[in-house]
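User: Hello! My lab partner asked me to get a predicted holo structure for this protein. The small molecule is flavin-adenine dinucleotide, SMILES included with the sequence. Please write out the structure tokens.
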Amino acid sequence: MAPQDLSERYNRFEEAVSGVAQIKRSEPLRNHTTMRVGGPADLFWRATRVTDMVAVIQEAERASLDYLVIGHGSNLVPGDGSYRGLVVMNHCTGIRFEGTHVWVETGHSFKRLFKLTAERGLGGLAFAVGIPGTVGGALVSNAGAYRRNIGDFVRGLDVLTRGEVKAVPPDWMKFRYRDSRLRHGSEQRAIVLTVELELFYTDKGSIFAEAEGYQAQRRERQPSDPSAGSFFKNVYDRALAESLPALPGSFRQAGVVPAGFLISEAGCKGMRVGDAQISPQHGNFLVNLGGAQASDVRRLAEQVRQCVLEKYGVSLEEEVLYVGEWDS
Ligand SMILES: Cc1cc2nc3c(=O)[nH]c(=O)nc-3n(C[C@H](O)[C@H](O)[C@H](O)COP(=O)(O)OP(=O)(O)OC[C@H]3O[C@@H](n4cnc5c(N)ncnc54)[C@H](O)[C@@H]3O)c2cc1C
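Assistant: Hello! Below are the structure tokens for the protein in complex with flavin-adenine dinucleotide.
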């Protein structure tokens, strides 16, 4: 589309939503990702009310604008080019409790949700204590740790899809290991607005003790440089796990090989492209040493995938999501 046509379309859209949304222009996405990379979004808006978010997205659809809803940007690598469309940052944080059930808007911080539930003596979410994103981002990738995943607790969701808000059951999401239907562009597009989780009553002290244990492990193992957490997914392959004598026994028994193990054993720790580096501390953390571009991150990830493929015959799959424009 000619730049002038796009600019006119942006102007008309901005005018149409002016009653509910103050749109920013050319907002750098690196300011909204934990990896600190990404070019500008042509249009950017921070949503705080679900009804407004629905109205703005419906208008974007009517105007045939591309749009992307993001949370905390902790699982995202946007390209260095401009995002041609609207990025909505979801800060809708409403929450309601009834017994062991909680209804929460998806812009709510996942860590904070853990804290609020634990204070009520509701167990289940201790694993969320070190996960820095929103509930929405957690649902999209079925976030988890320590053998628990958010999908285990989901009892229902409200989604915006094809311009309509509808209630869907948990199996609609097709939760799998770090995966759901929302990671697959080929499936029906949807934005998750609210979710109902069912937790269980347990001793408050033991919930916080469990969470403290997880925090201590993270402090010891995870680098503090900007990153998107684990970059690649672990590999569920029993034959591979059994063929690796250096793999700790608990992983061999579970038939899972941590991506970080393969990356370290393939000698990739410390590898760099520009300021993007495979952390010398943790093989599955790709960190930004300060001035990394998204293209450096992607090139380094490709080199690591190639290294692991050559040594183990395994093609690692990204846990992070690439969005926006990329040079081929
Ligand atoms: C230090 C660190 C540690 C981490 N540890 C873990 C861990 O232990 N386990 C784990 O699973 N992950 C971990 N992560 C990754 C990340 O925090 C999680 O995947 C998190 O749930 C992402 O949430 P977010 O709000 O940041 O999502 P974003 O990165 O903002 O978005 C991720 C994707 O979800 C989409 N999306 C976001 N909200 C919605 C919505 N409401 N509706 C539809 N689509 C939406 C976005 O468009 C994007 O495609 C870690 C990350 C870091 C930086």
